[in-house]
Amino acid sequence: MSVKANPYDNSKIESFFKTLKVEEVYMFEYENFLDVASRITYFIEEVYNKKRLHSSLGYMPPEEFEYIFKNNKIKTHQLALI
After folding, report:
1. What pTM was estimated for this model as a whole?
2. Residues 12-18: contacts with CB within 8 Å, 24+ apart?
3. pLDDT tens digits for range 62-78
4. What are the residue ranges spanned by the domains of the chain?
C-alpha cells in the first residue's frame, strides 16, 4: 500500500486525474450529477481512449497504436509461417 501523502506510489492514476481535471472538469460548468456523469464518461471513452495522444505510446492515440500493433503482429506471424 502507498504511504499517506506519497504521490509517487500511484503516479499513473495521479497523472490520469490531472488530465481529467485539466482537459474536462475545469473547462465545463456542470448543472447536475447526470451532466457530470455523462461528460466524464464521454471524455474517458471518446477522447482519452480514442483521440488523445499518449506519450507512452509514441504520441499516438490508443486506438491507432492497437491497430498498428495488431496488424504488425499478424504480419509477423504470417511471415513466421512461410
Report:
1. 0.63
2. 16/48
3. 888 888 888 887 565 45
4. 11-81
